[in-house]
Design goal:
This protein is of the alpha/beta class. 36% of the residues lie in helices and 11% in strands. The chain is built from eleven helices and eleven strands. The chain has helices at 2-13, 72-80, 88-96, 130-142, 148-153, 162-168, 179-199, 232-255, 266-275, 325-337, 348-353, and strands at residues 26-30, 86-87, 107-109, 155-159, 204-208, 260-264, 284-288, 290-291, 307-308, 315-317, 343-344. Strands 2-3-1-4-5-6-11 form a seven-stranded mixed sheet. The protein has a two-stranded parallel ribbon with strand order 7-10. It has a two-stranded antiparallel sheet with strand order 8-9. Helix 8 (232-255) links the parallel strand 5 and strand 6 (260-264). Helix 4 packs parallel to helix 7 and helix 9 crosses helix 10 (325-337). The protein is globular. The relative contact order is 0.13.
């Protein structure tokens, strides 16, 4: 009997999750890296992934997620042992029409694909900028639709900025700011995000760096961007922004008493995957699995004329902008249980285990 119990404990230990984390809910903000389908509910929004073959490898139908399966937000939720968070706009409809009495107690996903930390980013596409995502959350808290005690124990996740950086290099836009000044304006918006969620009760805060945006297959749409290597100027800007993000996270315990912040070094995690692809099960880390044209980066997956690879999870990129589920899973595992080179000052598992009343 003791041997059976030991085997059971060992098998449980091999899973990334145990049963008693101190996180009852996750509130997620950001762009398509996290979006669980909010844009699907926006009638005039042109940034969509609510058609096949999106979702084909895990959900087996489109969910509005911009990949073939789960995102980082989904994996983290599963590691903690929570059901996947609903998109805010879906939860809102269910409360308004009476199919649900209350907003979900396991958290809400406010992320909107195509959005940025700057309000103007992809405004013409009808996306929800981070400022409006914050307002949606703030309204729920102020109307007591979300319990304040729940908020204090919850995990808050932010990943945003990729679209702002990519758009800086669009040919029909003439930037009014130099790259460094533009990054500073972006970081000012992140400060506003941190200020706001802290005032509303957030104490467990995860800020995720941008990945190497200059390596996405969609760079083939930009005149002057190389296609035989990553776009160095874009990645330089990403790295500047990431340095700023990490600096803001380091200040969290000083600026926001009682709060704990972590920085997920996604850029470095992805560059490691690209450096030794075979080790991580990748056969291709340059081209999109689904799309068409150079790098399969010139056409969105699912649009007329697209091509698709037979083995999506052997590709780093699912479509012209977004990683595959396999990539997301590897990133999530590194953020969850990784060492300081991947996530700091503590990893997500430790953050989820913290008893915040004693912090």
């Amino acid at each position: 009997m003791e041997k059976v119990l030991l085997l059971l404990l060992l098998s449980l230990a091999s899973f990334p999750s145990v049963f008693s984390f101190n996180v009852p809910a996750i509130f997620t903000f950001g762009d398509s890296i996290f979006d669980a389908g909010n844009n699907h509910f926006l009638k005039n929004c042109t940034a969509q992934a609510d058609f096949p073959p999106y979702g084909s490898s895990f959900f087996h139908h489109p969910t509005g997620r911009f990949t073939n399966g789960r995102t980082v937000a989904d994996f983290i939720s599963q590691f903690i042992g929570l059901d996947l968070q609903k998109p805010y706009l879906q939860a809102q409809i269910e409360v308004v029409n009476g199919t649900q009495k209350n907003y979900p107690s396991n958290g809400i996903n406010f992320a909107s694909a195509g959005s940025g930390v700057l309000r103007e980013t992809n405004k013409d596409m009808g996306v929800i900028p981070i400022q409006d995502q914050l307002q949606q959350f703030q309204t729920l808290v102020q109307q007591n639709q979300i319990d304040s005690k729940l908020v204090q124990q919850s995990l808050f996740s932010l990943e945003s900025g990729s679209n702002d950086v990519f758009n800086y290099f669009l040919p029909f836009v003439t930037p009014t700011l130099d790259p460094d000044a533009y990054v500073q304006v972006m970081l000012t918006e992140v400060v506003h995000y941190l200020d706001t969620i802290y005032k509303l009760g957030a104490r467990r805060i995860a800020v995720f760096a941008l990945g190497p945006v200059g390596c996405v297959p969609a760079r083939s749409l930009l005149p002057g961007a190389p296609t035989d290597r990553c776009f160095g100027k874009m990645n330089h800007m990403v790295k500047q922004y990431n340095l700023g993000l990490e600096s803001l996270v380091k200040d969290i315990p000083i600026k926001y008493p009682g709060a704990v912040g972590i920085y997920g070094a996604v850029y470095d995690i992805v560059q490691r995957l690209r450096a030794i692809p075979k080790h991580y099960g990748f056969s291709d880390v340059s081209n999109a699995c689904c799309g068409d044209g150079i790098l399969r980066g010139m056409l969105q997956c699912g649009q007329e004329g697209y091509k698709i690879c037979p083995n999506p999870n052997e590709y780093l990129f699912w479509d012209y902008f977004h990683p595959s589920e396999h990539t997301y899973k590897l990133i999530s595992k590194a953020l969850w249980g990784g060492k300081q080179s991947q996530v700091r000052p503590i990893n997500l598992r430790t953050l989820a285990n913290l008893n915040l009343s004693s912090v």
